């Protein structure tokens, strides 16, 4: 009897990975805000990464996973960054980039006082940790964004009251410099007016490389540098200014164009008193636009195929039931934007509330963003939080987290890998 049960389980396991779609448990009872990422797919194997707490240290965990066999092999990176894991609210705690077969670069700035660079190999026990920059006492480094071009690695991140830039060349990091025009005083509409709000935690920067130029989006402004970051100029002062927030935007590039994604709100009802609770209601559109040089941009295209609900509730300064300002939202959240390895398909992954319950949707374009496919619901679980994806031919892989328990001090989640065939 036991042998029969084991055989049936084995056959079910084999059949699972031969299906057009399935969901596989990667990690159980981890932290929800682990920022799960799919790095690449090579020889049929997926490289997955996420943050995992071990012995009070927040270490990056790297997994090689076989989608066809369900076999995984994991490895901790021995970072010594001791800190709590914070909710990132759509911001990026770490970025990871493949540089050659089995070798990776990683930059981490997870709400601590330094920003760290890691160079490592999955197949060899070679690991290097470098402290790039350190913030002052009671301040932090946040929200890194990296891009690679012309043999150099470029990095921007937030520290204290500005966006900083540095580059990695010939095995060395340059001394970080503030990008003029990104200081907190340059963004009064974001609320950076006093000492309490001096840290720029609410304006995730995005960096992209195209044809020997660097492009930076931050806080509704688009900057560019034509000399590899030595000098920067603002080319769009109100770029994406109608966007719902500065968190859920994306800026990426291929070999021909640079692409910008944002969420635009259409407010129908509004009441924003200072001392009591207020609200905004309406609907949203996820939009995309592109450019060959950053100066002239195409007409934006709507990605979502139905109106997306938008609702924000804000507490006043003297709200009776709240001692501090609070915000409750129902808004679309762009989770990931990527090209397929051959650059022929551009995909976007987001979460919205079109059915009054949050679900994760996917859409793609095969003509450089001129038109977008019908929205595909890829994760219907309302407790799904973070996600990234990888396109492999007709197959789409989504690596996502699901909250299973909430305590006073932490969120507990499971991490899953879902596969679907999204094209005929």
Overall description:
- β4 and β5 form a beta hairpin.
- This protein has 424 residues and is mainly beta.
- It is built from 1 helix and 31 strands.
- The chain is globular.
- Helix content is 4%, strand content 52%.
- The strands form 7 sheets. Strands 19, 20, 21, 22, 23 and 24 form a 6-stranded antiparallel β-sheet that branches. Strands 10, 11, 12, 13 and 14 form a 5-stranded antiparallel β-sheet that branches. A 4-stranded antiparallel β-sheet has the order 1-31-30-29, with no helix packed on it.
- It starts with a helix and ends with a strand.
Q: Can you tell me the residue ranges where pLDDT is under 50 for at least 5 consecutive residues?
A: 5-18, 82-90, 192-199, 319-327
End-to-end distance: 42 Å
Number of helical stretches of at least 4 residues: 1
| Helix/sheet category | mainly beta
Helix content: under 10%
Radius of gyration equals: 22 Å
* Average of the residue pLDDT scores: 79
**How would the global form be characterised?**
globular
Main beta-sheet annotation: 6 strands, antiparallel
Beta-strand residue fraction: over 45%
According to DSSP, the number of beta strands is 31
What is shown here, in short?
The protein has 424 residues and is mainly β. Helix content is 4%, strand content 52%. The strands form seven sheets. Strands 19, 20, 21, 22, 23 and 24 form a six-stranded antiparallel sheet that branches.
């Amino acid at each position: 009897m036991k042998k029969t049960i084991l055989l049936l389980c084995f056959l079910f396991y084999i059949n699972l990975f031969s299906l057009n779609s399935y969901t596989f448990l990667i990690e159980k009872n981890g932290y929800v805000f682990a920022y799960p990422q799919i790095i690449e797919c090579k020889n049929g194997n997926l490289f997955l990464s996420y943050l995992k707490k071990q012995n009070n240290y927040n270490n990056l965990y790297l997994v090689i996973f076989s989608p066809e066999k369900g076999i995984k092999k994991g490895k901790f990176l021995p970072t010594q960054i001791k800190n709590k894991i914070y909710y990132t609210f759509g911001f990026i705690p770490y970025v990871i980039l493949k540089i050659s077969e089995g070798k990776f670069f990683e930059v981490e700035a997870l709400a601590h006082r330094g920003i760290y660079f890691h160079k490592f190999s999955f197949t060899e026990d070679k690991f290097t940790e470098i402290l790039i920059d350190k913030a002052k006492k009671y301040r932090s480094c946040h929200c890194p964004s990296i891009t690679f071009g012309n043999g150099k690695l470029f990095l921007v991140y937030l520290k204290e009251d500005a966006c900083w830039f540095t580059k990695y060349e010939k095995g060395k990091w340059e001394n970080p410099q503030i990008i003029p025009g990104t200081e907190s005083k340059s963004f009064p509409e974001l609320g950076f007016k006093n000492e309490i709000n001096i840290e720029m935690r609410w304006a995730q920067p995005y960096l992209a490389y195209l044809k020997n130029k660097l492009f930076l989006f931050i806080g509704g402004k688009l900057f560019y540098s034509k000399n590899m970051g030595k000098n920067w100029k603002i080319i769009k002062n109100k770029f994406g200014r109608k966007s719902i927030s500065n968190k859920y935007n994306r800026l990426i590039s291929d070999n021909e164009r640079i692409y910008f994604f944002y969420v635009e709100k259409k407010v129908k009802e509004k009441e924003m008193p200072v001392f009591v609770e207020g609200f905004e209601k309406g609907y949203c559109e996820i939009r995309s636009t592109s450019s060959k040089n950053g100066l002239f941009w195409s007409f934006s295209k709507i990605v979502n195929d139905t109106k997306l609900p938008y609702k924000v509730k804000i507490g006043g300064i003297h709200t009776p039931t709240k001692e501090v300002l609070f915000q409750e939202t129902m808004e679309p959240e762009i989770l990931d934007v990527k090209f397929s390895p051959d650059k022929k398909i551009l995909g976007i992954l987001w979460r919205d509330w079109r059915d009054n319950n949050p679900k994760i949707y996917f859409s793609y374009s095969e003509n450089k963003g001129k038109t977008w496919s019908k929205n595909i619901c890829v994760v219907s679980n309302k407790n799904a939080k973070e996600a990234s994806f990888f396109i492999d031919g007709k197959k789409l892989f989504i690596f996502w987290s699901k909250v299973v328990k909430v305590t006073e001090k932490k969120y507990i989640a499971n991490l899953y890998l879902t596969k679907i065939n999204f094209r005929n």
